[in-house]
# Entry
Amino acid sequence: MRRALIPLLLPLVAACSPSTPTASTAIAVTAQPPKIESTAAPATLPPATTTTSEPLFVEQLPEPAGYRWTQVANGLKQPVDLQAAPDGRLFLVERGGLIRVIADGALLGTPFLDLRGKVAHRGGEQGLLGLALHPDFSENGLFFVNYTDLSGNTVIARYQTSPQAAAANPASQVVLLRFEQPYANHNGGGMVFGPQGYLYISTGDGGAAGDPQGNGQNRDTLLGKLLRLDVDNRDDERGTAYAIPSDNPFAQGGGRPEIWDYGLRNPWRFAFDPLTGDLYIADVGQNLWEEIDFEPAGSGGGVNYGWNIREGRHPFAGQTTAGLTDPVLEYGRDLGCSVTGGVVVRDPALPEWQGVYLYADFCSGRIWGLLRSGQDGWQNGLLFETDYNVSSFGVGPSGEVYLLDYDDREGAIYRLERSP
Ligand SMILES: [Ca+2]
Ligand SMILES: [Ca+2]
# Structure
C-alpha cells in the first residue's frame, strides 16, 4: 500500500492501540532517541540563551521519568484540536464537526458549536480540523475554524459570540476563504495567530501521492502552503473579508498574496514559541521521512521548504537544493509514520521544560523533545513511549501543555505534569 494512501488520521489506527491508556500513567523511556545531526541554524537566530535575564531555554532536555501525562478528559470522538479561552475554558475540536467545552475540569454535554451539518469527514483526513481564538477573544468573541465542507473543499470561517457565552451562534458565520481540494487527503488544518496578530493557516498539497499537481512549488495556488491573513481588516478592492499584511512576501507579486511559506506537503500542525516568536512546522512525509521545519522569529517568510522536490533532506521529484530549506530534524519509518507537530513548553509550573518543543508520531506513539542548544545547534531526544495516537497538542490558559489521544469513542486529553 502506498504510504500516501494511509490517511493521517486513519480511524482504524485506533485498533492498533487496544489498551486504553489509564490516567496518570508514568511512561518510561525504553528506546534510544533518534540520531539527528546538529544543524547549523540560520544566521539570523537570536542567542538561544541570554545572560541578562532568565534563560529562554533549558540547557538539557528534562529527565522524562519525573513526569507523566495525566488524563483530564475522555470519551471524546476523534479529538483533533485544543484551544484555551482566556476565562479558563478549554475548547476541544472533534473531527466530525463539534467544538466541545471543558469548564472547571468537566467535559460539558452542550457543545460550544455544532458544525456537523456543514462538515464532511470522509476518509481519515477531512473534517473540522482547526480552531483559533482571536487574540482579543475576551473582548470581541471572535474565533476561526478550518474545515472541509460537504464537497470536500476547504473553508476558513469566522464566528462571533459573546465571550462568556456557553455556546456560539452558528448564524454568525462569515466565510473568509474557500478553496478547492482536488483529493480527499492532505487538507492541512492548523490555524494559529502569530506574534503580530496575523492568522496563519496550514494547507496540504491537495492530496493523492507525490503531489501530482505540483502544488507545493506552485505559488499561484493556496495548496501546499502556510498562509498569513490580516483578519482584523477587510479588502474591499479584492472583495475579501480579510486583508493581506503589507509585508507578506508576495503581497506585491510573485505568487498568491496570502502565502507566507511554500513547498509544504501536509503541515497538519505548527506552532510559534510564545516567548521568542520562532515558528516550528511539522510536515508529514510521503513514504520515508517525517520532518520538523524551523523558521526563526523575524523571518520575512517566503521560505521554500522543498516539497515535492525534496522529502525531508532527500531528493524526491528532483535533485536541486537551490533555494530550498531543509528541516532541522527528520525521522524515518523505523520510528513512526506520521508526525504530529506540538508546542513549545512555556509552562511556569515546569521551569525545567522551558523552551522544549514537543512533537509526536501519530502511529508509533513516541513523543520527543527538540531543544535549541547553544548558539547554533539542537538537542533531540525521545521522551515518552506511549500507546496514544497523538493527533495534536495544546496549551491551556496557564501555559500547561496537553496532548490529544485520537480514538473513535475513547478519545482523551492528557496534561503534562510532574510525577508526585
Ligand atoms: Ca485534499
Ligand atoms: Ca521539507
Notes: The longest helix spans residues 137-140.
